[in-house]
Amino acid sequence: MKKIISLVLALCIVLSVSAVALAEISGDAVVPCKVPFMITNAGQGPGGKMGNLLVSRAGTLVDQEDYFYVDVPYAADVDERPYGAIVIVIGSTDKGLGATGITIDEEIARVNEVMARANETNVPVIAVLLEKDKRSTSPTNANERCIDAVCPLASWMIVVTDANTDGRFDKIKEEYGVPLTILDNSMDFIAVIQQAFAKETAE
Question: What is residue 25's three-state secondary structure?
């Protein structure tokens, strides 16, 4: 996992400026959001750390002031601060679950509690998927279960086009009415963050 994060960091440093300038964003328009916001994960894959890193590269938000990374959140964490949104990056790996010491069933139960608490307190949840499609056709696939736990109750979905090759997220949008923004690649998340959390207009 450290190698993955290091690779992403290197790519961000080299490509962040050009990536923002050439960002390819389609689907529904960027949704204005308020700071501060939480960044976390569903599935214990590397996506949460990747999302946090890309937010830091946006250069428009202050860590521990405008956004807070919470590695393994629980329902009570939703009340930790007056969050304007919760960004949940979806992605599950056996290695990540093993390192955390929990099963996928325990992870889904935890995510369900976070989603329920966010709904109770009217904190919008932004469901994000930044990695290529690693899902199988099995209904018990860990990534599918994380998608089912988060996306239908989310206020907005942001996914890379390679994660939507089967139209999975288009179907969720149609059934649940959740706006869907498509990124050409994960680097485009930087531009979306800059637009969504523009502090002069979002507060």
Answer: strand
Region of 178 on the Ramachandran plot (φ > 0 left; ψ -120 to 50 alpha; else beta): beta
Q: Say whether 85 sits in a helix, a strand or coil.
A: strand
Q: What are phi and psi of 178, to 5 degrees?
A: -90, 125
* Cross-strand pairs, 92: 44
Cβ burial of 113 (10 Å; 0-12, 13-18, 19+) is middle
Tokens of 117: 């608490």
**Angstrom distances, CA of residue 49 to CA of 28, 39, 53, 138:** 25, 9, 6, 26
pLDDT digit string, tens, across residues 124-162: 999 999 987 666 565 568 889 999 999 999 999 999 999
- Which residue's structure tokens are 């590695």? 71
**Nearest CA among 53, 61, 59 for reference residue 5:** 53
Among candidate residues 10, 32, 70, 26, the one with its CA nearest the CA of residue 161: 26
- What's the pLDDT score for residue 173? 98
**How far apart, in whole angstroms, are the C-alpha atoms of residue 150 and residue 56?**
24
Q: Burial level of 125, CB count in 10 A (0-12/13-18/19+)? A: buried
Relative to beta strand 37-42, strand 85-90 is: parallel
